[in-house]
Every structure is written in structure tokens, then in C-alpha cells.
């Protein structure tokens, strides 16, 4: 077997159609059919059931597809990394999650360009989870994210922990309370916005029983009563905000899940609930939202920096120097680290 045969099989298996696979690969249908037949002959196994429309994978074909897809992805990653190692791009492509942009990232980029005027920077808004694939494909060279990832291709360093603050509507009864406790927030609708969940699990053993009036749901959102049934509470809690409450044995009475942080703050501004955000976002919508400090010192959101293990872009050390310089100017405590 060879790569042409394997790629032909993957295209057919993905699209379940010879004509669609031909259009995607740029090969003729007879060429694709011949490559697939050669692969099946070499293996002595039928991979595609051609008598169904759309095409079906045989049981052996499904097994082969699952295993060979991962191998081909790894080959693509190695090929891309080898090309970048041979001829690094002069552009430093930086991925970031939106919450980091509201923090010190603009200052860091300004510092980087000031200290190294020849560096060309390209910023890309991309989620923590998607950054892993983007690093492997070469779409980005480094990423700022909020979550730790376990990936054999990726190395990461923890830059710092940022305190969460509670975002409340200006008309909320607690809007002017300077020191907030999670237990006092449990009766409110908590708006969840994270698209990436924690790789750890926590269970709530002693949930707080709460009662209260609930306002009408906002269209386009997904809502759940967080302590309706004990069975629900026994499940692993990996949603980041619920995890923070669960650390204190608290389960919010009701939650609403939205697509991103900006939507969450929009609902808070409209009086539809509360949420927790990193402190760097407390300048957003200040006319409608009151941001107050939480008394819990360990209720924080980490900031990680991710890059490939086997290829570190030549300008990444300059970026790290700029980050630590900004931290020093701001009086932020940090532990200096370098990528290996």
C-alpha cells in the first residue's frame, strides 16, 4: 500500500461517494476506484461496500479507517513541522482566546514590536481547544489559552493566574457589595460561556438547596436546573465555572449556556443573570454591569502559552521577554520560564 491509496480510501470513506471524493481530490472516478481496489487487493480485505448508496464502510473498513486516519494526521503533522524547521516563516502567528485580548496582550505585542521592530506579527482569534490543531497544521506558531492540554506534540507553560470577578446587572441587589462570596450567588441564574471544558472531574457532594423566581428564557440559549436531581450532581463537573462552585460544595440553582463570553456579558447587561469573568474584562459594558471582587483567592483563571515540542519559532523567546517585561511594569508576580 502507499499514501495515494490510503488518501483515496480516506476521501471515499469521509464523503461516502466516489464522485464527491473525485471532486475533492482532483482525481477521476476511475483513478479513485483503481486506487481503492489496489489497496483492498494488497490487504486481502474489502473496505467499502459498493452496493449501498451512500457507500458504506465494511466492519473491517471502519476499523481500518479509525486507525489509519490518526496515522495519516500524524504524517501530515510531521511533514508540516519538517518544512517549518527547514525554512521558518518570518511571520510570528499568534493564536489567542478573546478574554486574553482584553488583558495585557495588546501591551505585550506593542512591547514586542518596540523591542524587535523587524518582527511581523499576525494575531488569530481561536479557542484553546482549536489551538492544538492549529499549532500542528502551522496555522499558528504559539497560542495564548485558558486551559491546560495533554498532547504529545504540544508543550506549554503557565504564565500566571488571573482572579475571577463576578459580573452583575447594575440593578442587582448585590451590585454594590465589594466582597462577593460564591454561596451568596448560588440563587442567581449563572450564565456559562466556555466552549472548552476542564480535563479533570469534580463532584458536588453536598449541594445547596435553593428556591427562587426564574425569569423567562432568552431565545437561542440553553438552560438547565443545576440541582434538580442528585443523579445529575454525581456526574463529573468539567464546565469551568461550575467547577469553581463545586470546589465549595455549591451548585447554582439554574444555568444558561451561551456561545461565547460577549453574549454572556450581553445577557448580564440585560439583567438576565450573572457570570464570572477574568478581572481583565471588568472594563466591558460598565454602564450596565457592575464588576465586584470575589473573596475566594483560589477562584482564578490560568493563562497558558502553547507551542510545539519539536519546533519553537525563532521569535518566541522575544515574545516571552516582552511578556515578562510587561508583567514587571505592572507589578505582576510570575515565575520566568522558557520553552525547551
Helix and strand layout, with pairings?
Layout: H1 3-15, H2 18-25, H3 29-43, E1 48-49, E2 56-57, H4 59-86, E3 91-96, H5 98-101, H6 105-115, E4 120-125, H7 128-137, E5 142-145, E6 154-169, E7 179-180, H8 182-185, E8 189-192, E9 222-225, H9 230-233, H10 240-246, E10 254-257, H11 261-269, E11 275-278, E12 289-294, E13 300-308, H12 316-330
Parallel strand pairs: 3-4, 3-5, 7-12, 8-10
Antiparallel strand pairs: 1-2, 5-13, 6-11, 6-12, 6-13, 9-10
Helix pairs in contact: 1-2, 1-3, 1-4, 6-12
Q: How would you describe this structure to a colleague?
A:
The chain is of the alpha/beta class and 340 residues long. The chain folds into three domains: 3-86, Winged helix-like DNA-binding domain superfamily/Winged helix DNA-binding domain (Arc Repressor Mutant, subunit A); 91-161 and 301-330, D-Maltodextrin-Binding Protein, domain 2 (3-Layer(aba) Sandwich); 162-297, D-Maltodextrin-Binding Protein, domain 2 (3-Layer(aba) Sandwich), CATH 3.40.190. The protein is 38% helix and 20% strand. It has twelve helices and 13 strands. It has helices at residues 3-15, 18-25, 29-43, 59-86, 98-101, 105-115, 128-137, 182-185, 230-233, 240-246, 261-269, 316-330; strands at 48-49, 56-57, 91-96, 120-125, 142-145, 154-169, 179-180, 189-192, 222-225, 254-257, 275-278, 289-294, 300-308. The strands form three sheets. Strands 3, 4, 5, 6, 7, 11, 12 and 13 form an eight-stranded mixed β-sheet that branches. Strands 8-10-9 form a three-stranded mixed β-sheet, covered by helices on one side. A two-stranded antiparallel sheet has the order 1-2. Helix 1 crosses helix 4 and helix 6 (105-115) packs across helix 12. The longest helix is centred in the first third of the chain and has 28 residues, at 59-86. It comes from Psychrobacter namhaensis. Residues 1-58 form the HTH lysR-type domain. Belongs to the LysR transcriptional regulatory family.
Amino acid at each position: 500500500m502507499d499514501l495515494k491509496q490510503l488518501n483515496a480510501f480516506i476521501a471515499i470513506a469521509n464523503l461516502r461517494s466516489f464522485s464527491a471524493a473525485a471532486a475533492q481530490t482532483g482525481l477521476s472516478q476511475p483513478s479513485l476506484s483503481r486506487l481503492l481496489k489496489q489497496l483492498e487487493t494488497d490487504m486481502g480485505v474489502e473496505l467499502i461496500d459498493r452496493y449501498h448508496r451512500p457507500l458504506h464502510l465494511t466492519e473491517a473498513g471502519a476499523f481500518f479507517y479509525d486507525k489509519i486516519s490518526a496515522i495519516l494526521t500524524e504524517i501530515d503533522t510531521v511533514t508540516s513541522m519538517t518544512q517549518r524547521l527547514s525554512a521558518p516563516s518570518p511571520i510570528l502567528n499568534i493564536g489567542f482566546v478573546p478574554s486574553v485580548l482584553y488583558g495585557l496582550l495588546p501591551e505585550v505585542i506593542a512591547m514586542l514590536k518596540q523591542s524587535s521592530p523587524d518582527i511581523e506579527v499576525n494575531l488569530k482569534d481561536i479557542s484553546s481547544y482549536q489551538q492544538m490543531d492549529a499549532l500542528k497544521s502551522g496555522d499558528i506558531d504559539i497560542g495564548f489559552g485558558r486551559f491546560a492540554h495533554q498532547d504529545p506534540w504540544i508543550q506549554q507553560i503557565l504564565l500566571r493566574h488571573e482572579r475571577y470577578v463576578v459580573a452583575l446587572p447594575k440593578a442587582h441587589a448585590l451590585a454594590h457589595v465589594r466582597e462577593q462570596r460564591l454561596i451568596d450567588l448560588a440563587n442567581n441564574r449563572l450564565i456559562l460561556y466556555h466552549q472548552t471544558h476542564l480535563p479533570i472531574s469534580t463532584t458536588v457532594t453536598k449541594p445547596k438547596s435553593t428556591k427562587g423566581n426564574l425569569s423567562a428564557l432568552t431565545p437561542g440559549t440553553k438552560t438547565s436546573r443545576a440541582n434538580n436531581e442528585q443523579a445529575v450532581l454525581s456526574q463529573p463537573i468539567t464546565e469551568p465555572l461550575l467547577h469553581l462552585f463545586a470546589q465549595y460544595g455549591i451548585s447554582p440553582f439554574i444555568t444558561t449556556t451561551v456561545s461565547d463570553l460577549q453574549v454572556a456579558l450581553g445577557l448580564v447587561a440585560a439583567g438576565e443573570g450573572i457570570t464570572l469573568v477574568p478581572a481583565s474584562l471588568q472594563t466591558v459594558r460598565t454602564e450596565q454591569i457592575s464588576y465586584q471582587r470575589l473573596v475566594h483567592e483560589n477562584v482564578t483563571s490560568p493563562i497558558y502559552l502553547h507551542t510545539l515540542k519539536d519546533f519553537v519559532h525563532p521569535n518566541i523567546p522575544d515574545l516571552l521577554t516582552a511578556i515578562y517585561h510587561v508583567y514587571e511594569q505592572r507589578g505582576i508576580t510570575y515565575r520566568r520560564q522558557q520553552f525547551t
